[in-house]
Amino acid sequence: MKCIIFSCLFFCLSANVTNGQSLTELIEEVLSQNPQLQAQAHQTKATALRAPQQRQLPDPRLDLGAFVLPVETRLGAQWFRIGATQSLPWPGLLNAKAEVELRKANIQEAEQSLSKQSLAFQTKQAFYRWYQLDRQIIILQRQYDWLQQLKEISTNRLESGTGNLADVLKVELEESKIEQQIAILEEQKALPLTDLQQLMQSVETPTPKSDSLPLADWEALWSDSLLLDDPGFEVLQARQLLSQQEQQVNRLAAKPDFALGLDYILVGRRSDADPEHNGRDIIQLRASVQLPIFKEKYSAKDQEETIRQEAIQYEKQALQEKLLAIWRKAKVTYEQSKINVTFAERQAEKTQQIIQLMINYYQNGNASLEDILQQYLQLQRFERNKLDAIVQSYLAKAEAERILINY
């Protein structure tokens, strides 16, 4: 009865995860729900809105003045003065400043892609950790079913008088060990699920799909041009373009600035005489030029940006070498996993044949139960080695996709 309940419970758990979410669905949900990405998206929009602010002319200046001691003129005393001044930057300067803000937004957008890449990688890691634990439970359950068959054989031998009670108890002892291991693994599965829940910012615990995975497919994963699509390169490229635009702003800022003004002066009428146009007010047009004669700061700023662009170029080279090293290591890990899977499959197949032969011998009294149990443990080890190698192949592929795929 205990075995039936245990098997039914395992079947229900397996059926539940079969109807769960695939890795692709989990990644899509993480990228759509993660608050970090939403915050970055809003920050990018906010930065882009600075561009139209930079295109506006400076606010005009209004001047007011009253003559405490009026200036006497031929037409009367000047009593009050009002004037307006409008600054006019060098043509193209405002648009250049607006472009700076847009390029800052481009940097933030590239950083958002970098965050997406990182979150997708973390999701894959959590999913494969969960998958590994889930498939280990399946391996143990299969081992449990084999022990049930062996227990039945031992019980039949005991009832027929050709076996002994010790063999039955030994099988039951191994069953208890497996039940404990499965219970521990079920608890451990909560850890990667918690990571997925945190990445998704979900109240409900995610239910990944537990379809059996073959060895990861590495074909068509590599292209020389793919590295240039890495978000890290996009960030560096955006920073370089920003620096170039800062240079352009600096060069335009070194040009003269202009200002146009208009003054209106209220003139009082003379009472001691009545000249022609007596008390006529004054209207004055003004124009001014701001001359940037101190060029050192502009020259220093230009050199600063030139050096910054050279530094970014070196960063690109360093990043390319780093990404190539990551890809090479991932490729080596994948090839090792491929070898390990092939070896574990062959060893597991041979071990199954040995077990079947030894069971036949055991039924006839020509083999010991200890040897069969030892072979069962060996088979379990090979199956777990195969599982570990398959999971490692997917983790290696995820590491390569981390630098080759832009979300």
Key terms for this structure?
single chain; 407 residues; alpha+beta; four-stranded antiparallel β-sheet; 10 helices; 11% strand; rod-shaped
- Rg, Cα atoms, Å: 40 Å
Strands side by side in the biggest sheet: 1-2-3-4
Helix/strand-derived class? Answer: alpha+beta
Number of strands: 4
Low-confidence stretches: 1-18
Order of helices and strands: HHHHEEHHHHEEHH
Number of helices: 10
Q: Shape, please?
A: rod-shaped
Mean of the pLDDT scores?
88
How can the largest sheet be summarized?
Answer: 4 strands, antiparallel
Please give the share of residues in helix. Answer: 55-70%
What percentage of amino acids are in beta strands?
5-15%
Note the gap between the termini: 51 Å
Summarize the helices and strands and which ones pair or pack.
Layout (H helix, E strand, L loop, with lengths): L1 H17 L4 H11 L1 H14 L1 H5 L6 E13 L2 E13 L4 H68 L4 H24 L1 H11 L30 H23 L3 E11 L14 E9 L5 H68 L5 H36 L3
Antiparallel strand pairs: 1-2, 2-3, 3-4
Helix pairs in contact: 2-5, 3-5, 5-6, 5-7, 5-8, 5-10, 8-9, 9-10
